[in-house]
């Protein structure tokens, strides 16, 4: 009987503690090519594996409508450091197309609107801390 009482009385505390630590992140993306393909949004929660597709913490593909902007909200994220990478897969082939020297042919962007020079940005350059519900803006770069 004591175990049952402990479970009953501790369950609300565990549930309340878990619910309080969850936040939403709204990613507002601009400079899209309207009506073309999908936007792939990747959220990373650590530097190791940043920008590697198989290391995405949470990812989503969103169809691009007739506007040059879109917003997507991720829910139930625990507090912590995150970085967001976005690209517009204009031809819906499931990959970020590049030219023969590796420059992206499709729009892309990062949290903090980091503009890479000669190499991809680092997790540290693009990270932000999520401690409450947050909205970030990312303007896609098109070369």
TrEMBL record:
Q: Which species expresses this protein natively?
A: Cruoricaptor ignavus
Q: Which Pfam family is an annotated match for this chain, by its short name?
A: DUF2141
User: Could you name the domain of life of the organism this protein comes from?
Assistant: Bacteria
Q: What keywords are assigned to this protein? A: Signal
Q: What is this protein called?
A: DUF2141 domain-containing protein
| Signal peptide (residue range) | 1-21
Xref: InterPro entries? DUF2141
